[in-house]
Write a structure and sequence with these properties.
heterodimer, A: alpha+beta, GMP Synthetase, Chain A, domain 3, B: 437 residues, mainly alpha, 14 helices, 77% helix, globular, disordered N terminus
Chain lengths: 100, 437
């Protein structure tokens, strides 16, 4: 059984390289679920379609999830529905962006 | 009403962006050539500041200097940026990438030879390298146009970029006609018209539409803007098209009135563009506006000012000091925008190449760690000050101002190149590009 909180915590080491906010606080992670024993599926989005960091961020998310010991394999789906909105930003992200 | 929150849906697009970007070396080689071009331009500008103050902008060295900026620096850098941005903005691969790679080398040789031929006014070289440059720039425009045909989303940004690449071959064709005009009897008396056509197609048609189009992608991306109005961008495009053809039509019809109407359309296009940029900035989530973004957005103000000055002049039934206005437009609108975005695009490419594969495994630097955006502030401020002083000096034939402005511009460009070459790290980049080839 994978501890999904540990996965979420691990994903916080993945930052949008331009903004400097991690993908969890940016609200890019929609869903983390364990499909089968050790098999993790992550649904995430980007702040905008055609984000230049699309490939590198989704790959970084996969690598960060794999750092959790119980995780054997990870699939990452980048989805656009529902679209990302600023309401998904955490308080920490808002502070980092200069918005409260 | 269109708003930026209307997005594509589903997972079908999810894999689309991945793997579409060209290999690192394609955009980077073009950008490095562009940066090297800026460095040589800065040195040449400094060396020529005395001559420029004496009004020799149209002499061989002045023509070479101008094309060192336009072909050697701006176009080269822009070609690299377009190869990179088109794939992510339109979710298309650059095809055929191999041809694009080969075309780079031909372009580098053609432009180097052409600028050297211009400086020495070596006529066989002008014809030979001018023809080669025309073919290679045409090939670039063809590659991008063919790639764009695969785009599924054909929004206003697409139409801007597509139109820009329609104007580019026309601009170089006009330049080629200028080169061969002395040998063709029916063209000999049309050099003034051809020159205006070439300048307007290149600066107004290609660079202006390209910058306006990609601003709709770059500005929201770097400011994290969300929910801004998209409405009316096609009006900007229509006005810009009208401006290009009215000015050209006026030049060939020898009508300052029609040219003035073209300048008016350009003024309206810039005003509308500034409105759209303002709308994007108003809805930004990043509160602090970094100096490079401030410069890139503010440069549109230079475009507006340039168009307004041309209109005022033509409205008065004259068009003196045009060389100063062209310099102001090229440096203030086009170069300043390119410099602003270069501070963001080059570090992003370097970050992706050097650190993206380690992200998620270990702590990696952010893009801002490669070069802090605030480092650009004094450089861009010096460039802006130099621009105003230099343009006024050229327009008014004031020697001291021209030299002082040129020194400021050259110093700012040199600092810009040093900073970005520092990010690139010339000791590493050659090997990295060869690995990617």
């Amino acid at each position: 059984m994978i501890d999904l909180d540990k996965v979420r915590e691990s994903l916080k080491m993945v930052h949008d390289p331009e903004i400097g906010v991690n993908v969890v606080d940016l609200g890019l992670i929609y869903e983390i679920e364990e499909l089968q024993e050790g098999r993790l599926h992550i649904r995430m989005t980007m702040t905008t379609p055609g984000c230049p960091a699309h490939a590198s961020l989704s790959e970084a998310v996969r690598r960060a999830a794999q750092r959790v010991p119980e995780v054997r394999s990870v699939t990452v789906d980048v989805v656009w529905d529902p679209p990302w909105t600023p309401e998904r930003l955490s308080e920490a992200a808002r502070a980092r962006l200069g918005r409260r | 009403m269109d708003r930026s929150t209307v997005l594509g849906g589903g997972t079908a697009a999810s894999g689309a962006a991945a793997g579409l970007s060209p290999s690192f070396s394609l955009p980077m080689r073009h950008m490095l050539l562009g940066l090297a071009g800026f460095a040589v331009f800065a040195a040449d500008l400094l060396a020529q500041s005395l001559h420029l103050a004496e009004g020799s902008l149209l002499g061989p060295s002045g023509v070479a200097l101008t094309h060192l900026l336009t072909l050697g620096s701006l176009l080269s850098f822009t070609m690299g940026a377009v190869y990179q941005l088109s794939s992510v903005a339109f979710l298309i691969p650059i095809a055929p990438e191999r041809t694009a790679r080969l075309n780079f080398w031909v372009y580098a040789v053609a432009v180097g030879g052409l600028i050297a031929s211009m400086a020495t006014w070596w006529k066989p070289g002008l014809v030979l390298f001018g023809t080669l440059a025309t073919l290679t720039v045409g090939a670039y425009a063809g590659i991008v146009t063919a790639s764009l045909k695969r785009a599924r989303t054909r929004d206003a940004m697409y139409r801007f970029v597509r139109s820009a690449h329609g104007y580019l071959p026309l601009a170089v064709a006009a330049a080629w006609l200028l080169i061969v005009a002395p040998y063709v009897p029916w063209l000999r008396d049309m050099t003034r018209e051809l020159l205006i056509t070439h300048i307007v197609l290149a600066a107004g048609g290609f660079f202006t539409l390209l910058i306006m189009g990609f601003s709709f992608k770059l500005l929201p991306m770097f400011t994290l803007s969300h929910g801004f109005l998209n409405h009316g961008r096609d009006w900007t495009l229509g006005l810009a098209h009208a401006a290009v053809w009215l000015v050209i039509g006026g030049a060939w019809g020898h009508s300052l009135w029609i040219m003035g109407a073209g300048a008016g359309a350009a003024l309206a296009a810039f005003a509308l563009h500034l409105f759209h940029l303002g709308e994007i900035l108003r809805t930004r989530l990043r509160k602090e506006l970094e100096p490079p973004i401030r410069a890139a957005a503010g440069a549109a103000g230079a475009g507006l000012t340039g168009a307004g000055l041309v209109m005022v002049q033509l409205g008065g039934g004259r068009f003196s000091g045009w060389a100063g206005l062209v310099a102001f437009y090229l440096l203030g609108w086009i170069t300043f925008t390119v410099m602003g975005y270069a501070y963001k695009i080059v570090p992003f490419l370097i970050w992706t190449r050097r650190y993206s594969k380690r992200a998620g495994k270990e702590t990696v630097p952010l893009i801002g760690d490669l070069i802090a955006p605030d480092q650009a502030r004094p450089v861009l401020a010096a460039f802006a000050a130099g621009l105003v002083i230099f343009s006024l000096g050229i327009a008014g034939a004031w020697r001291g101002m021209t030299i002082g402005g040129a020194v400021l511009l050259a110093s700012a460009l040199a600092a810009f190149c040093i900073q970005l070459f520092g990010v690139v790290d010339l000791g590493k980049i050659g090997k990295e590009m060869r690995v990617d080839d």
